[in-house]
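#data-curation
PF: Archiving a pair of folding outputs for the training set. Convention for this channel: one message per protein, sequence first, C-alpha cells after, nothing in between. First:
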Amino acid sequence: MTKDVELAARNGHGNGTGATAGEAYYPPPGHGGDVDVDDDGKHRRTGTVWTASAHIITAVIGSGVLSLAWATAQLGWVVGPVTLMLFAGITYYTSSLLADCYRTGDQVTGKRNYTYMDAVASYLSRWQVLTCGVFQYVNLVGTAIGYTITASISAAAINKANCYHKNGREADCGVYDSMYMVVFGAGQIFFSQVPNFHDLWWLSFLAAIMSFTYASIAVGLSLAQVISGPTGKTSLTGTEVGVDVTSAEKIWLAFQALGDIAFAYSYSMILIEIQDTVKCPPAENKTMKKATMLGVSTTTAFYMLCGCLGYAAFGNGAKGNILTGFGFYEPYWLIDFANVCIVVHLVGAYQVFCQPIFAAVETYAAWRWPNAGFITREHPVSAGKKVRFSLNMFRLTWRTAFVIVSTVLAILMPFFNDILGFLGAIGFWPLTVYFPVEMYIRQRRIQKYTSRWVALQTLSFLCFLVSLAAAVGSIEGVTESLKHYVPFKTKS
C-alpha cells in the first residue's frame, strides 16, 4: 500500500473506496505490491508486550512522579499511599476494559478501532463520540503544554544546581524559564516529523530508561536524606492547619493533590493507539492487558517509593517538584544528571502524547481533500546512501505550527503543580473511567439495575466526584498563581 493511500486510510477514513468517515477501510492484502501486511492491509504490526510496556511507562512515569512527595504531604501517611493504590487499581481495571474495545466483535478477527474515538464510535452514541474527542484532545494538548513546562524547569534546574554549588545556597540563582521552553520546542519540531507511532519505539525505550533513571535517583536521594537527616516533620494527616496552612488552603491543596495523582496515572487516552502497534497473534487485548499490568505495577512501585520516601525526607514542607525545588543540593552532578534524564524522557513522552493529535488531523485532511498534493504527496529525501526519509509538506507545516503554539502557551502558563492537577482532573474521570465503563456495559450487554451495572456506575460516579474536586482545587491554585504572575518573566 502506498504512503498516500495509507495516510488517507489511517483511522478508517476511505478515499473514494466506499468507506465513510468513522468506518474501517481494509485495502486488499498485497495492494501495491506489499506482501507483509496485516488483515487491514496496513504494514504488519510488530509490537510486543515489551514495546507496549515501554510506551506505557514512557507515558505514565512522567513529570507527575516528581510531584508525588508534595501530594503525599498534603494528604498524609494514611490517605496519601491509599490514594496511590486506589488510583493504580482503578487505572488497571478500566484499562483492561478499554483493551477489549480495540476490536469490535471477535477479539482476533473483528474490525480494528485505530483510535480511542474510533472505539467510542463503535459502541456509543454520536454525542458521546464528540464529547470524548473534546476531552481526549484537550487533554493531549494540555499534556504537551505541561511537559514543555516541566522540561524547561528541569533544564533550568541544571543551571541553578551548578550556581548553588559554586556560589552557595544563599545565592540568587533564579533563571528565566522561557528560553528553555523555546529550546525544547525547537527540538520537538524535529522529532515531530517522525511520521507515526510505529516509528517511535526506539524513542519510547530510551525515554523509559530515562524515567527509571531519574525516578531511581529521586528515591535514592530521599532514602539517603531519611538515613542521614535532618528530616521534615510528618503526620498521619499531612500538612497541619494553623501551622503549615490555613483550613481553606488545606482543602484546596488536598483537592489539587488528588489531581496530581490522577495526572500521574493518565495514559488511557492513548491506550488504543499503543495497542494498534501490537502484533497479532496473540490477540491484541491479551498482549495489552499484560503490558498494562507490567506498566502500572512498575510505575506504582516507583510512585510509592518517590511519594513516601520524599515525604519522609522533607515532611510537610516537601517541594512541588522533588528534583527541581531544591530539597536536594548535593551531589550537584547527580542532580544535574537526573534533570538531564527528565528532559530526555519528556522529549519522548511529548511525542507519545502528540502523535494521536497529528494522526487525527492528518487523517481528516486526507479524507476531506484526497486530491490535494500538498496534503497527501510524500517527497522522498536522501542524505547519503543510508539515510532516507520522506517529507510531506502538510505534515511539516502543521506539526511545526502545533509545536510553536504549544510552546507559546507553556510560556504564558508556567504553573507546574496547578497545571498538572487540572490536566489530571479533566482527563481522569471521562477518559480513564466513564467511557471504558460505558463501552464495557454496551459490549457485554449488561442490563440496567443489575448488581454489576450498579457497581460499575457507582465506581464511575465516585471517580467523577474525585475529578470534580481536583478540578476545583487546581483552578483555585491557578487563580492564586496568577495574582503574582508577570508574562514572560517567570523564574525557576
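PF: Second:
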Amino acid sequence: MMKSRETNVEFKPLSPPMVKGGVLCFIAAAISSAGGVGGGALFLPVLAIIAGLELKTASSFSTFMVTGGSIVNVICSLIIKSPKFGDKCLIDFDIALLSEPCMLLGVSIGGQVQCCLP
C-alpha cells in the first residue's frame, strides 16, 4: 500500500483485476454511448465483481462515469453539425425547452412522494 504524505490516505496498487475492470468499463462506455443510455447498469457489476471494489465505491465510480459520459455526449452534440438540417447542431433546443419544465416538475413531485412513502 502506498500512502500520501499530505493526507495520509492509503492507495491500493494497480492490480490485474482493476486493469481488466477498466478495460471492460471502457468497452461498456462505448456500447452505452452508442446506444444512448447511461451505462450504470453495466459499470456497477464490472466494478464490483471483476475489479473487486466495495459496492459503495463502485456505485460512486459508476455515477461519476455516467456523468462524465453524458457531459462528453452533450459537448459532441453541440460541436457536430448536421448537413441534413442546414448545418445546425444535433440538439433540438425547442424540444429541450418544452420538456425541461415537465422534467423539473416530475423531479419535484417524485422527491415529495419519496419522503411520504415507506
